[in-house]
Write a structure and sequence with these properties.
Layout: H1 2-18, H2 22-38, H3 42-55, H4 60-100, E1 103-105, E2 116-118, H5 119-123, E3 129-134, E4 140-147, E5 155-160, E6 163-166, E7 177-182, E8 185-192, H6 200-206, E9 213-217, E10 221-225, H7 228-270
Antiparallel strand pairs: 1-2, 3-4, 4-8, 5-6, 5-9, 7-8, 9-10
Helix pairs in contact: 2-3, 2-4, 3-4, 4-7, 6-7
Length: 271
Amino acid sequence: MKTKIAYTLLILCGCIACTPTVSDNAKPLLDDAISHYANGMYNTAKMLIDSIHATYPKNVEVRRQARNLLFQIEKDETNRTLAYMDSILPIMQSDWEKTQAKFVITDTTYLPKPYYQHKTFAKQAPGTTLYCEITEQGDMQLISSYQGQTLDHVALKVTHGDVYAATDTLPIGSVYNNQFTDLGVRWEYLTFDTGRQADVAGFIAMYADKTLKVTLYGKRKYTYYLSKASAKAFKESVDFASQTKQLYQLKQEYKKLTDKKIWLEQTQSSL
């Protein structure tokens, strides 16, 4: 009986000796991840690293090496993206500056932040008209200016033939609906932000070479036609807003990646 037990233990010890250890199983995955990384297959390498952490949570040493590899992959990806941005940012900045020459920055005395306004709008005489302004982030606001007998207008529609675009309603008393009388002259200003304008500016840009009718809605309807110069300025403003937003977002992403690069370098050096 004792001989049988000893024989069984001997067999078990042999099986244990032949069974791959946790390190033996995890190491090939790490080697595979390193190989894919060397060949520029970063996504595959990261998936293999995820597998190591999920399948072998107790293998501290291999997981440590896998984590270092992941940091290196993310550094390489960050550097590659930053290099690409370094090549296109100067071009985009130069193109933006050429377009920006058609715009002026509004007086910030009574405004919380500066806006870009097309020179055509900046030069036009105050009165009943429609114009737009663009933030430094590329967001656009549409302004309806009215001068005349009290209208209390709260919305507007721009029409070309059978197609039109209409804004949301800005109720009387809203901070976006400003009305006052100055030296006996009635003034009304409605300011529609990006959401409330419902892309009326985009509609004007699309039909800038057409006849565009503007209808103001208040106690009564008031209709006028947008000038060709204003329509052209709208088209150029919409293009400039898109250009400004793209450049702003790229700069924000560049800053995030630069901060990430610094963090990766500091973190990896402390491991």
